[in-house]
Structure formats: structure tokens, C-alpha cells
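Much of the work behind modern protein science is quiet bookkeeping, done one molecule at a time. Below is the pair of lines this work produces for a single protein:

***
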Amino acid sequence: MTRLSMIGFGLLVSLCMSNAWAGGSHSCGKLSVETLTSGAYHQTVTERRYVLARTEAELEALEELVGTSFDVDLTETMVLGAFMGRRNTGGYSIEVTKAIETDNALHVKVRLTSPGPSCPVTLAITSPYEVVALPVVDKELEIHERTEVRRCR
């Protein structure tokens, strides 16, 4: 998403926290995010994509996509796969940095990092990904992307 989306995410967090501190009736809470696996070379997913697994069938499909199994209890945990898509060089990464539950949705903040023009990179096609575990939330998922360019000397 755009910078405006990230400003909206920041406002969402601020409103949630100020409402909670003021004793408001809206629920809002930061959720734990645990990385299960990540890497730079995913062979199957070539476009940016997010896959949320809440059921055994969805988890099996995500495990097949990633090529590994995850030891999680789906009564307490759901699993989110974040895939950046194919890149022509190394130096790229994707990271789920924060998850916040509001009355209406589960808001997940994702950082997409790319190498700056003076950064040394591998000359290989890459496809960065990260798979994280989150507490179960039965709400619509909203992804908020922030793009960063790494600076190198």
C-alpha cells in the first residue's frame, strides 16, 4: 500500500490506544507475532501474496506451498504467509512487523524492503517470504504495507 495507508495505520493505532486509555467501549489490542520461517528463495510464489490459514485444510495448503510443516494448534493460533513475489536480484525482504485487532478487523503491518542503488546484491532471482503465527482472531484481515529502500555506502 501507499504512505497514506501507513499514516492511516498510525492513526488507527493512536485512536485505539487513546480510546482504551479513556475507557472507551471499542476493543483494540496489539497481538503477538512469531516468525515460523522466512527466506529469500521461494520457488513457487512469483507475485505478492498473503495466505491466511485458520483451518487444517488451509494450513496444509500453506505448508505445501512453503515446503515445510508447522507445529501449531489452530484452536489458539492462525498462520499468515507473506510473499513478496519474484525479484531480479537479492537484497529484498518482507517482514510482518505488527498485528492489531480492532472491533472490525485484524490489521497487519508488513515492511517491504528493497536495496538502494549503491547496495551490493546477489545476481540471482529471489522471492522473499515470511510465515508467522498469530493468535486466533475471527475478523477480516487487512494488510498495511510500508515500503523501505535500504541505504548503502
